[in-house]
Hints:
423 residues, alpha/beta, UDP-N-acetylmuramoyl-L-alanine:D-glutamate ligase, Protein-Tyrosine Phosphatase, Chain A, 8-stranded mixed sheet, 39% helix, 17% strand
Amino acid sequence: MADPSDTILARLMTLHPKIIDLTLDRMWRLLDRLGNPQEQTPLVIHIAGTNGKGSTLAMIRAGLEAAGHSVHAYTSPHLVRFHERIRLAGDLIAEDDLSRLLDECEKANDGAPITYFEITTCAAFLAFARHPADYLLLEVGLGGRLDATNVVTPKLSVITPVYFDHEQYLGPTLADIAGEKAGILKRNIPAIIARQHDEALDVIEAKAREIGAPLLIHGQHWHVTEERGRLVFQDETGLLDLPLPNLPGAHQIGNAGTALAVLRQLGVKEPACEAAVTQARWPARLQRLRTGPLADAVPQAELWLDGGHNPAAGQAIANTLSGMPPRPLRLVAGLLNTKDASGFFAPFKALGADVHTVTIPDTTATLSAEETAAAAQKAGLPAQPASDVLTALREIAEETPTARILICGSLYLAGEVLRLSQE
């Protein structure tokens, strides 16, 4: 049964002809009508970047909560229910609260053009302003400079690794993309900068010099490595020797370092820093699926789910899988038409993977299963279309019953998989 908020959200989708239209004019107009709630939130940690935003946010949240702080969080997109985007002092927003806030924003907007993400972000700011907490972890939706979240003056800014993605909105070069991400930097507000390609870091440093934003940069002001099965973090205040992150993948070492740099800047002590890397939870990031109809369809296989969708994410996933005990690797993949599908698939060629491709259900921008298969073949992987995920899994179970299966390519596909897994 649909939530009442679903009806309101469906109406909000019709308020602008484009899903994405990067400008802040509409945000400022509606926020002013709502009493500027973005000025009344708890202390903001504003997080931009291409990959790792969600995992880094989850680790920061785990650390702050372990230190006894109450924490709001704003993330996107959601996987199963919209409510996942707005977390109030640890809990997902209640349906009654969400419906009431969406209705208030819709009335204040009075039919004016505004994108879905913009008006729902306004609703989130209302929620954060009206519920007490110590911190608000605010994830950028797309880019940074003109993103709907970039209406705050944060306590700290964070830029996770910048890679190629959303070039049609952010520009064709890594420097262009980094310039958009660096748009969240604010004068006199410290910023934690994760490991970057030199081209991206040059742009971020230039922007910081221009506006007077102090930077704490990986490799200069803080360092993180894996040593003998431990995570070692060092900054100007000393060294932390911690367990490896509970989120799987070597790339999580870097995300953990970024989170720890944030926590140290906020004065969080070592026990809570350890909780940051051992207690974080973030679904659809190399998540093992063990129960539900999909897992039941492949009883002898390992079944994994990841929402990564660009070439850098593909490389990170492939690196992690390459370190696992050997098994035949089979992918079930669906991607959006805004992504570099062949670039995503390319790192899996060295692992001998083949691909069953699907059209992502109820997603306007999906590539068809046939288009995704062609992209995988272009990257050198054997590929064949399937009618849906369950059919693909059954075909794999017949061909290679003990395979390692990775469902991948899109957070929208990941959300569909999690819904199916709960049935």
